[in-house]
Amino acid sequence: MNVGIDAIRFYSSNYFIDLHTLAGVRGVDPDKYTVGIGQEKMAIPPPDEDIVTMGAAAAKPLLDREGKDNIELLLFATESGIDQSKAAGIFVHGLLGLPARCRTLELKEACYSGTAALQLACAAVARNPKTRALVIASDVARYELASPGEPTQGCGAVAMLVTANPRILALDSETGLFTSDVMDFWRPNYRDQALVDGKYSTRIYLQALQECWKQYREQSGRSFGDIARFCYHLPFTRIAEKAHERLAKDAGIALTDEHLAQQAGGSLGYNKIVGNSYAASLYVGLNCLLDNEPEDLSGKRIGMFSYGSGCVAEYFSGVVQPGYRERLFSDEHRALLNNRTELTYRQYEDIYNLAFPTDGGTHMFSRYRTGPYRLAGVKEHKRQYEAAS
Question: By three-state DSSP, how is residue 21 classified?
Answer without folding.
Answer: helix
